[in-house]
Amino acid sequence: MGFNDDRTGVPDDWFVDPLLRDILGDDGNSDTAPLAWQRDAVCSQTDPEAFFPEKGGSTRDAKRICSGCDVKAQCLEYALKNDERFGIWGGLSERERRKLKRRA
User: Fold this and answer.
1) 92 has pLDDT over 90
2) Does a structural domain hold residue 99?
3) Rounded to an integer, what distance in angstroms lies between the CA atom of residue 56 and that of residue 24?
4) What's the burial of 68, exposed, middle or buried (CB within 10 Å: 0-12/13-18/19+)?
5) Is residue 37 domain-resident?
6) Between helices 72-81 and 94-103, what is the axis angle to 10°?
């Protein structure tokens, strides 16, 4: 953790919620943080609206983005474990995730 140039003793990242830092792994322990995978998610660098289309809207763009994502499996696992009901997670829509859970 760095400090401001004025040496006030205030950390550079004073505005980051410490709980969020622990969850995402910004404390230097990134491999063990529960949601550290989200930092590598391609969707974190794109328009979130694509992943939450209006009812009856196309999911094609979001699924295309997911197809090239390195953390697609972790994303889907998270959505299934946490019963995410909206949006595209791990390349699957809510309906597709529901079907997958039923088969399991």
Assistant:
1) yes
2) yes
3) 32
4) exposed
5) yes
6) 70
Domain membership of residue 85 as a residue range: 18-103
Closest of 44, 42, 45, 21 to residue 33, by C-alpha: 21
Tell me the three state secondary structure of residue 92.
strand
Can you say how many angstroms the Cα of residue 23 is from the centroid of all Cα atoms in its chain? 11
Give this prediction's pTM: 0.68
- Fill in the amino acid letter for 56: G
> Does residue 5 sit within a domain?
no
- Closest alpha carbon to 78 in 34, 20, 19: 34
The count of domains in the chain is 1
Contact 90, 72 (CB under 8 A): yes
Q: Is residue 1 part of a domain?
A: no
- pLDDT (tens digit, 9 = 90+) per residue, 3-44? 445 556 665 655 555 555 555 555 545 566 778 888 889 998
Task: Answer whether 65's CB lies under 8 Å from 87's CB.
Answer: no
